[in-house]
Design goal:
alpha+beta; Arc Repressor Mutant, subunit A; Umud Fragment, subunit A; 2 domains; nine-stranded mixed sheet; two-stranded antiparallel ribbon; 11 strands; 22% helix
């Protein structure tokens, strides 16, 4: 049996990689055939031969190339965007889900995540400026120096750095030494509504 066209094999391999990067799945034989103006049976035979030669890996379901193996997992976490969070004195906020967005797990990890838009200037030394989107892990337990969403006893919330407990008080620090040097909030009790894990911002 005559070997298939070697140039076309390379083009098919490159097409599979490009298709996977854009669609996060392998193209079907019909899609390969349509792209190269060949029928799907011919496309199948090319893939089988390319698999035997090591140009691709075909397991009967998906087609892998050296490019697809470099692509991150398509797994995603669906996270709600829940309005705003103040970076200043505690303020009353009502949770308001604006939309749901998909966050790639390879970057943001897993867990019960949600997103808040920051306003105020008390956290700018941490990079959290007005308008920045803060990705929060709702179930994470706060550790010293974590940035947390704090709900106090008056059902008011704010975003601050947790400094631990001192003299029976929970201490939360501002992170803007130029404007609020050494300023903290001290609470008898609080509810942690999550720990900030990532920021999404424009440069």
């Amino acid at each position: 049996m005559l070997k298939k066209n070697s140039i076309l094999k390379e083009q098919i391999r490159d097409y599979i990689g490009k298709f996977y990067r854009e669609e996060r799945r392998s193209p079907s034989f019909q899609e390969i055939g349509n792209y190269f103006n060949i029928n799907k049976t011919t496309a199948y035979r090319y893939i089988v031969e390319m698999n035997e030669e090591g140009m691709v890996k075909y397991d009967g379901k998906s087609i892998k190339t050296s490019i697809t193996s470099l692509c991150s997992s398509p797994a995603k976490t669906n996270a709600p965007v829940c309005g705003s969070i103040g970076c200043g004195d505690p303020t009353s906020e009502e949770e308001n889900i604006l939309e749901y967005v998909n966050l790639p797990e390879s970057i943001f990890g897993t867990g019960e995540l949600y997103i808040l838009r920051a306003y105020g200037d008390s956290m700018v030394d941490s990079g959290i400026e007005p308008g920045v989107l803060v990705v929060v892990d709702k179930n994470a337990q706060p550790q010293k120096n974590d940035i947390v969403v704090v709900l106090d006893g008056d059902n008011q919330n704010t975003l601050k750095q947790y400094k631990g407990k001192k003299n029976g008080k929970y201490i939360f620090a501002y992170m803007n030494e130029e404007k609020y040097p050494g300023e903290t909030i001290e609470l008898d009790s609080f509810v942690c509504q999550g720990v900030a894990k990532h920021m999404i911002k424009s440069f």
